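Hi there,

I know you've been waiting on this one. I reran it after we fixed the sequence typo, so this is the corrected version. Both the input and the resulting structure follow.
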Amino acid sequence: MLQGYWLYRLGTGVSAHVYELHPDGAVRYVAEREAHLAPRWYEARFVAKEFVDRLYGWNSSTVSGDLAAAINMTNESMGGRLRLEFADAQFVEEVRSRAIRSEIEWGKVEVLEEGSRAFRVRLLAEVFRYGLLQYEGEPLESTNIGLELVLGVVRRTPDFRPNGLEVVGMFAITPGENDHSVE
């Protein structure tokens, strides 16, 4: 008969890992506590904001890693399209040569549709670009962005898709007059 105790390691923003702890000190990984649960609306919101943060919130020294992280949050098809677009535009080289950084000021972030296979999230924000070493004063430029992301529901994995979501579609939208609420 196997004797043991269940031990949960609670994480932030990810499901808890479940381990079996034996009286002799042996520990065995069992599973993810919430691996079978469908993603919740607030997880969709979190993943959408994180994706946009990576896509637009970079600086010239981290832009390559930030874009790679954003692309890793997408499905294979969308990731391939983003890689081609960034390569064609020589985006990383352009950002590095300009020595700039960006900051995002969030407007509205809302889950428009929630389903068993997908979520649709609308994000409105303003992106400010500054000189890399500029921490005070007016930005060099700013851009209002409006996006709708489609997040597909996938199997939760602790390292790759802890929230069980990946970005499968991204559409630019024109922010409306009533979309200026701030959270």
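Quick highlight: Residues 154 and 160 are 11 Å apart (CA to CA).

Best,
R. S.
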